[in-house]
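During the no-cost extension, the postdoctoral fellow (Dr. R.K.) reprocessed legacy sequence entries with the updated structure-token encoder. One reprocessed record is reproduced below for audit purposes.
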Amino acid sequence: MNLGENIKKNRKKQGLTQLELAELVGVSGPMINQIENSVKMPTVPLCNLIAKELNVSLDELVNGN
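Re-encoded structure tokens follow.
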């Protein structure tokens, strides 16, 4: 799995919509959609925020471990 797929999997596991996750991390809903579909790559600070909100480690988010 790639980063976008890992974010999507963990977001759904937490029961969040793309818009809800976007609001939690301070970006737009379309930005989360683009990240999940590998159109855009999030910055490292944004990855850290996403991992925190999804209650996973950054390693798990990036590598799917």
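The chain has a mean pLDDT of 96. Helices lie at 3-13, 18-25, 29-36, 44-53, 58-63. The remaining legacy entries will be reprocessed before the final report is submitted.
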